[in-house]
């Protein structure tokens, strides 16, 4: 799952460029630190042995100015390289070079989950961003409530999602793989469990995923556990918050569940999406993710079985 | 003299000493040394509180998926930890040292305004109490130490914690500005003869620079706090995007204050090690004028770099590059200082006392924090590392490796002067190694956690590879730092009781505080050595190699500005920043056309124009009153002052009429952003006019009693600066709001 040291394991041209700059600056910093620490330590070691009255040296303007040359050169170089990166590799993609008027993807941050909307197909997902590898996607970042921050260390720059404002980033993965993402701006009680993952697929796999997500829930056989669960879902207040395409559940304030069973994780990364964990979640969301917005419905064991069965059909 | 008489004298002497140390004597003190000690003790108390908060967080984070604190409490802990360490520890302890040592080092009897000094101090426990009272209201503030909107606005934060945070910080902000004005004027006006500004000890110079920063940066915070308080309590929507407000505006206002704040916390520490390193190297500071001038450059640059806290906001290419270049430039004056401190050590005869060890550790640790700071100035690197544990590591290297180590150095250096007793060096060295090891354990690994993708401000984390081990090391380090702090407390208690006697100048110090007894008498000095260089006490001790013989420094011209006038100028500068920000908010929110009331359809320009005329006229009548007073024409003075008061009251009456009309039409502060900005700007101006009127009335009464007369006309002209300033602000308000300039 992802990389252990993502900042040193870039997987997109953009992250690669940031990484290279970081390594350069890190090396220069190491050299500077070594020089300063070396001089300080030599001065201290030699100075401790000196018992006589030292020369009363008040300074030397020429040395001061000579010393400034180093920092000035480094600062100018760093300013130039940073500006160049800001202007090129990481330029804010306000306008799409291919002439598209809209973004490819819209990511909307909520307290404490991510909504992902595909403009072309209308597919809506939550906490998972599936992309074709090798393709540069233009992502519009919005917030439904407070300020959040979109951070996928291996793929792209950090960018805030700010209510009343639209921000854009490029999202691209060179190779297929799974890339960890997180909210990086403190956004309230459950800022911690506001993770997501970017799944980069080969073009064929991505098309398959996309096609699968455009198929809407199969008809349920009346009388089985899942059908009872569906009736429960529609009968309780679940549908006021959640949407399931093809049913009367059209809520938008909580994650879209149309393809819930296809997801790997629940609750912004707090649980794996297994039937047992789903049951745990439904039984008391606040016990798993304290402070989360989904209430505890005090479901009975039978109701839990029905709901888990129904949600399991939403492939 | 008989034995009885001697006994009697001894008894009354004991009684006097006992009463000098009674609680009442401390509470009612206006002596800068005692106030300094009170500041330092209060800060130490809050250091323990903020440290316990940090320890609780580290316990929570010691193992993955921990449930020790839970998210709500954890969020309160880091919000309170940050707020406490910045506002209740860092600023007060530095103000405390400045309070104690600035007057001593410039050969002054006290600060410029001793009673104002007491007020500044007492606002500190008051603000701290308000902040901590929030726990009893059900929730401490939980939106972080920078309380980003809209998370801190009412719709997302219903508890009262943020309200207490706002009120507490306003209280502390007022105290900080008052203290800074005091230090600023003390340095300008209370220097002993011979102490030209170019001969100030560097700690005094840095404290002076810090006071300028505080005077000009705190009002930005106060403006933001006032606006958020109006949002939360009066229903305005400055920072609520859902109702047209701006989430980003809060960030701009906060960081316009917040970045200079970093230098408010580090410049005095620069000053401290600039005293400690030379003394324990037995050399003068290398390149004094470069160290001093580079600090002035930092002060200037610090107002132009706030945007580097906002590189992830999406401000756009131009803003990002501008703030990147500004931030990178700060590396040059800072690097210059490192060079000068190293050069001071070079060739010195070095005594590795505890103070010196902390100063040397400061050099190395601060360089680490400075270098990671340069990384954050490079925008793309910031895009990767900001808001991660890497930034937590960075600012702790600056604030602990820099500020705290500087403070420890100063504590060991100056404790003998403050108490007359030496701190124990063996305990000091134990504390040093505990802190050095603990600090690096805790924060060095956090660089790696950041690179591993751990965001800041998370209450727990899953069991990702390596996270548990590094977090456990960080927690262990925190325990070492706590142990080191206990050693310091024990050292202080022990030394107060049985530490070795210090004598006047135990370290062979160079500056004037070492020319008096330890602790200094209430009046500070019995005799002040002649000041002919930057190191008067060195000159006294080493007449054969006195500085003034070898190194020329600009002589004192004797210029000492009037205290009252200087303080009002500083105050007015501070208030000007406050009003500029409020007016900026007005312009931001009123440039686009909105439905409902606006300036064009709600305000009566002609009527307000007339009242504006009256207010401006009052400046002229005030000027006449001033002329009369300096010409010793008491009756003329009273007449013109009376007219000024009447005109001011008329202006306020006009404002009341205007408000009444608006409120009757349903234009109240919560109506829309025009109404919110209008009432905020004009309301604060009205408060300033009213405050001015109260002062004028007091002066009028004093004039009637002939206590304010030609000899004391300086007071009147100081008040005049304020009164004219209020008029100038109104010209800005009238032009922008009523006449629509800048929109």
What is the makeup of the main sheet of chain A? 5 strands, mixed
Unreliable residue stretches of chain A: none
Assign the CATH class of the largest domain in chain B: Mainly Alpha
Largest sheet of chain B: none
Q: First CA to last CA of chain A: what distance?
A: 22 Å
Oligomer state of the chains in this structure = heterodimer
- The number of helical segments of chain A is 8
The assigned structural class of chain B equals: mainly alpha
How confident overall, as mean pLDDT of chain A? 92
- The helix/strand order of chain A is HHEEEEEEEEEEHHHEEHHH
Distance between the termini of chain B: 85 Å
What percent of the residues of chain B sit in helical stretches (DSSP H or I)?
A: over 70%
Please bin the fraction of helical residues of chain A. Answer: 25-40%
Shape of chain A: elongated
Poorly predicted ranges of chain B: none
What is the residue-averaged pLDDT of chain B? 95
So, CATH architecture of the largest domain in chain B?
Up-down Bundle
- How many domain regions of chain B? 2
By CATH, the topology of the largest domain in chain B is: Cytochrome C Oxidase, Chain A
Strand order of the largest sheet of chain A: 3-2-1-5-8
In short:
The complex is a heterodimer of chains A (315) and B (743). Chain A has 315 residues and is of the alpha+beta class.
List keywords for this structure.
heterodimer; A: 315 residues; alpha+beta; five-stranded mixed sheet; 12 strands; 37% helix; elongated; B: 743 residues; mainly alpha; Cytochrome C Oxidase, Chain A; Four Helix Bundle (Hemerythrin (Met), subunit A); 2 domains
Written account of the structure:
The complex is a heterodimer of chains A (315) and B (743). In chain A, a hairpin with a 5-residue loop joins strand 2 and strand 3. Chain A is of the alpha+beta class. Chain A has eight helices and twelve strands. In chain A, 37% of the residues lie in helices and 18% in strands. Chain B is mainly α and 743 residues long. Chain B has two domains: 520 residues, Cytochrome c oxidase-like, subunit I domain (Cytochrome C Oxidase, Chain A, Up-down Bundle); 176 residues, Four Helix Bundle (Hemerythrin (Met), subunit A). Chain B contains 24 helices and no strands. The relative contact order of chain B is 0.08. The model of chain B has no long low-confidence stretch (mean pLDDT 95). Classes of the chains: A alpha+beta (315), B mainly alpha (743). At the A-B interface, helix 1, helix 2 and strand 9 of A face helix 4, helix 8, helix 9, helix 10 and helix 11 of B.
């Amino acid at each position: 799952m992802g990389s252990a040291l993502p900042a040193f394991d870039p997987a997109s041209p953009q992250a690669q460029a940031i990484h290279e700059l970081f390594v350069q600056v890190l090396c220069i910093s190491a050299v500077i630190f070594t020089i300063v620490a070396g001089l300080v330590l030599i001065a201290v070691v030699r100075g401790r042995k000196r018992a006589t009255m030292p020369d009363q040296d008040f300074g030397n303007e020429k040395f001061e100015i000579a010393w400034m040359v180093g920092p000035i050169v480094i600062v100018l170089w760093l300013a130039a390289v940073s500006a160049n990166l800001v202007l090129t590799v990481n330029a804010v993609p306000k306008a799409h070079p291919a002439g598209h008027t809209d973004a490819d993807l819209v990511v909307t941050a909520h307290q404490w989950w991510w909504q992902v909307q595909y403009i072309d197909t209308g597919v809506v997902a939550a906490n998972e961003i599936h992309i074709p590898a090798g393709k540069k996607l233009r992502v519009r970042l919005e917030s439904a409530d407070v300020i959040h921050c979109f951070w996928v260390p291996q793929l792209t720059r950090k960018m805030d999602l700010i209510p009343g404002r639209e921000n854009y980033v490029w999202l691209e993965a060179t190779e297929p793989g799974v890339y960890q993402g997180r909210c990086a701006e403190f956004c309230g009680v459950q800022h911690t469990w506001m993770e997501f993952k970017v799944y980069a697929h080969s073009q064929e796999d991505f098309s398959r995923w996309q096609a699968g997500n455009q198929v809407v829930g199969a008809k349920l056989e009346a009388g089985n556990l899942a059908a009872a669960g569906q009736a429960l879902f529609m009968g309780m207040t679940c549908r006021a918050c959640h949407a399931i395409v093809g049913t009367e559940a059209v809520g938008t304030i909580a994650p879209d569940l149309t393809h819930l069973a296809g997801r790997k994780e629940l609750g912004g990364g707090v649980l794996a999406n297994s039937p047992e964990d789903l049951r745990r979640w439904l039984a008391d969301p606040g016990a798993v993710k304290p402070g989360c917005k989904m209430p505890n419905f005090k479901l009975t064991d039978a109701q839990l079985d029905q709901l888990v069965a129904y949600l399991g059909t939403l492939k | 003299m008989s034995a009885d008489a001697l006994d009697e004298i001894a008894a009354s002497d004991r009684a006097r000493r006992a009463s000098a140390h009674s609680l009442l004597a401390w509470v009612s003190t206006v002596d800068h040394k005692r106030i300094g000690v009170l500041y330092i003790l209060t800060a130490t108390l809050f250091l323990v509180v903020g440290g316990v908060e940090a320890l609780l967080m580290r316990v929570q984070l010691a193992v993955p998926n921990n449930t020790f604190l839970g998210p709500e409490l954890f969020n309160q802990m880091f919000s309170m930890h940050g707020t406490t360490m910045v506002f209740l520890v860092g600023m007060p302890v530095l103000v405390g040292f400045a309070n104690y040592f600035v007057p001593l080092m410039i050969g002054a009897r006290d600060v410029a305004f001793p009673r104002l000094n007491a007020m500044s101090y007492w606002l500190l426990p008051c603000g701290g109490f308000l902040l901590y009272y929030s726990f009893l209201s059900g929730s401490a503030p939980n939106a972080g130490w920078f309380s980003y909107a809209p998370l801190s606005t009412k719709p997302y934060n219903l508890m009262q914690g943020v309200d207490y945070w706002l009120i507490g910080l306003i209280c502390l902000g007022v105290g900080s500005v008052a203290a800074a004005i005091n230090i600023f004027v003390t340095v300008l006006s209370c220097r002993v003869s011979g102490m030209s500004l170019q001969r100030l000890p560097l700690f005094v110079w840095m404290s002076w620079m810090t006071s300028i920063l505080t005077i000009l940066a705190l009002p930005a915070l106060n403006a933001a706090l006032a606006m958020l308080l109006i949002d939360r309590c009066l229903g305005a929507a400055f920072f609520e995007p859902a109702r047209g407000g701006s989430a980003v505006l809060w960030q701009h206002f906060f960081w316009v204050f917040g970045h200079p704040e970093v230098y408010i916390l580090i410049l005095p520490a620069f000053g401290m090690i600039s005293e400690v390193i030379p003394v324990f190297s037995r050399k003068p500071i290398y390149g004094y004028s470069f160290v001093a001038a580079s600090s002035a450059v930092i002060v200037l640059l610090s107002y132009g770099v706030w945007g580097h806290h906002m590189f992830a906001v999406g401000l756009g290419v131009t803003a990002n590059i501008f703030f990147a270049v500004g931030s990178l430039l700060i590396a040059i004056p800072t690097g210059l200082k490192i060079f000068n401190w190293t050069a001071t050590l070079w060739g010195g005869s070095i005594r590795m006392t505890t103070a010196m060890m902390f100063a040397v550790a400061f050099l190395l640790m601060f360089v680490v924090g400075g270098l990671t700071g340069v990384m954050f100035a490079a925008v793309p690197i910031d895009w990767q590392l900001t808001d991660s544990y890497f930034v937590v590591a960075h600012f702790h290297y600056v604030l602990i490796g820099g500020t705290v180590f500087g403070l420890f150095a100063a504590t060991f250096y100056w404790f003998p002067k403050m108490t007359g007793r030496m701190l124990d060096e063996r305990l000091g060295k134990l504390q040093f190694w505990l802190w050095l090891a603990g600090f690096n354990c805790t924060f060095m690994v956090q660089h790696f956690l950041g690179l591993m993708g751990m965001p800041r401000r998370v209450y727990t984390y899953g069991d990702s590879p390596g996270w548990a081990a590094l977090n456990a090391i960080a927690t262990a380090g925190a325990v070492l730092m706590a142990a080191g702090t206990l050693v310091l407390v024990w050292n202080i208690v022990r030394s107060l009781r049985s530490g070795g006697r210090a004598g006047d100048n135990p370290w062979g110090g160079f500056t004037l505080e070492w020319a008096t007894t330890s602790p200094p008498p209430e009046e500070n000095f019995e005799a002040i050595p002649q000041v002919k260089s930057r190191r008067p006490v060195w000159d006294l001790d080493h007449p054969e190699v006195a500085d003034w013989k070898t190194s020329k420094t600009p002589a004192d011209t004797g210029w000492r500005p009037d205290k009252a006038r200087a303080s009002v100028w500083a105050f007015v500068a501070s208030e000007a920043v406050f009003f500029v920000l409020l007016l900026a908010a007005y312009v931001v929110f009123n440039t686009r056309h909105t439905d409902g009331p606006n300036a064009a359809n709600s305000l009566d320009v002609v009527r307000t124009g007339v009242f504006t005329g009256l207010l401006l006229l009052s400046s002229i009548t005030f000027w006449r009153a001033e002329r009369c007073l300096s010409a010793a024409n008491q009756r003329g003075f009273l007449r013109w002052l009376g007219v000024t008061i009447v005109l001011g009251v008329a202006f306020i009456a006009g404002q009341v009429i205007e408000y009444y009309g608006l409120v009757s039409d349903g234009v109240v502060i919560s109506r829309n952003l025009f109404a919110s900005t209008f009432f905020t700007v004009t309301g604060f101006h009205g408060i300033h006019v009213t405050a001015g009127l109260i002062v004028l009335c007091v002066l009028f009464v004093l004039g009637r009693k002939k206590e304010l007369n030609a000899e004391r006309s300086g007071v009147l002209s100081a008040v005049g600066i304020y009164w004219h300033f209020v008029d100038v602000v109104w010209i800005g308000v009238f032009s922008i709001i009523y006449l629509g300039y800048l929109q």
